[in-house]
């Protein structure tokens, strides 16, 4: 279930994205690569968008 009506992410996904965001910031501060973490965030967001688009399509029928 989405946290808000305008947000496709559920609470678990939001927590994961926030945690990964903090890790990205720490790695950037140390001068390390963040590509893998950013890829995980993108995957979480894409999954959430896909799920919510599917729900909207189901409701429209």
Summarize the structure.
With 61 residues, the chain is mainly alpha-helical. It is built from two helices and no strands.
List the helices and strands and how they pair.
Blueprint: H1 11-29, H2 35-60
Helix pairs in contact: 1-2
Flag low-confidence runs. none
Mean pLDDT: 88
- Order of SSEs: HH
Alpha carbon gyration radius: 14 Å
Count the DSSP helices. Answer: 2
Helix/strand structural class: mainly alpha
Q: Please estimate the helix content.
A: over 70%
- How many E-type strands? 0
Largest sheet: none
Taken from the alpha-carbon principal axes, the silhouette is elongated
Strand content: under 5%
**Straight-line distance between termini:** 20 Å
List keywords for this structure.
2 helices, 61 residues, 74% helix
3D structure, described in words:
The relative contact order is 0.14. Helix 1 (11-29) runs antiparallel to helix 2 (35-60). It is built from two helices and no strands. With 61 residues, the protein is mainly alpha-helical.
């Amino acid at each position: 279930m989405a946290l808000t009506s305008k947000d496709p992410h559920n609470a678990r996904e939001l927590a994961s994205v926030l945690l990964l965001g903090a890790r990205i910031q720490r790695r950037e501060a140390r001068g390390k690569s963040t590509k893998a973490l950013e890829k995980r965030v993108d995957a979480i967001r894409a999954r959430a968008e896909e799920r919510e688009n599917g729900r909207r399509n189901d409701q429209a029928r």
